[in-house]
Amino acid sequence: MMLDELYEPDRRGDGTREGKPEPSAPLSDREVPLAPVSAIDSVHRWLDGEAPEPTGVRGDAARSVEFWRRLEEETERRRRVVTPPYVAARIMASLPDTGSSTLMAPWWKKDVHLTPALAVVLAVAAFSLGLLVMRLIAAG
Amino acid sequence: MKQTVPADQIDQVDADQAIIARVLDGDRNAFSILIHRYSDPLFRHALGMTGSPDVAEDILQMSFIKAYSHLAEVRGRFDAWVFRIVANGCKDWLKNIRRTHLSYDEDDQPSGFANPEEDLDLSELRSDLDSALLTLPVSLREAFIMKHVEGRSYEEMAELLSTTVGALKMRVHRAREALQALLEEKYA
């Protein structure tokens, strides 16, 4: 026996699904209604700036609105807090003395200041190294 | 998804880059322009996260020194870059505080308000809110402060914290619910 037959509408026996709406029932009765936006959600949306302040709410939602109105006075005051004036001067005074670019650049990116003495030392070192390499090659 | 950057923000980035170039060329004093430009929102963040003005000042100072020392590494927005330094500084401090079980002094509550009269008006709500904020997990506190105290948009928060708008909304909603549960009885 095919399983599909159990659910054929004409069969009123064991195979009929329970709760299946009558074909004649209006469409609106057969649709699952969308969940309504709860009053608390509307409070969150108001606080998020996505909706106007909820009006005509009762119970928990009304208490929430009252609570957040009151808290908003305090958060508004905190929004006006400024840094104490001495802090900027304190920060400037405690900045490292060395130039900023020198501080943060890795050693291989730092500028090399070539003095005449350093140039001579480097030239002698390079010459000596060259001689050493040549002697090793000749000996080998 | 590609985001369009507002024109004024591009101007700001260019202006900051010009100042950074001056500092890197040896004009150390130019760095104070960046400090004045960005210290207030950064201070508010540190103050909200730590609940202590003294600690917030120290974190701000250390963060700007760090920024100065690594200025050549700035790519893109300076304000976003320095924000991350401050935010990490706050998280590090909170980790250490938990480890050492330090507690706050009653006197060590947020101050530094624009109006000195307000500074004296240490309302009950202010201290209760501070205490409640300190009980929140760091990620919820951070999201709540950025949204409600700093007044940032979710998009900006997502950019600064490298996360999604949806995740941040969830954090802010959870923070609100937790704060409300803690304070509602007294203030609703």
- In terms of DSSP E residues, the strand content of chain B is under 5%
Q: What proportion of the residues of chain A form beta strands (DSSP E)?
A: under 5%
pLDDT < 50 stretches of chain A: 1-21
Helix content of chain A: 40-55%
CATH level-1 class of the largest domain in chain B: Mainly Alpha
Unreliable stretches of chain B? 102-114
Largest sheet of chain B: none
Distance between the termini of chain A: 95 Å
Categorize the overall geometry of chain A: elongated
Number of strands of chain A: 0
Q: Using the CA coordinates, give the radius of gyration of chain A.
A: 41 Å
Chains forming the largest contact = A-B, 35 and 54 residues
Structural class of chain B: mainly alpha
Query: Sheet bearing the most strands of chain A, described?
Result: none
Instruction: Output the CATH topology of the largest domain in chain B.
Output: Rna Polymerase Sigma Factor, Chain: A
Q: Into how many domains do the coordinates of chain B divide?
A: 2
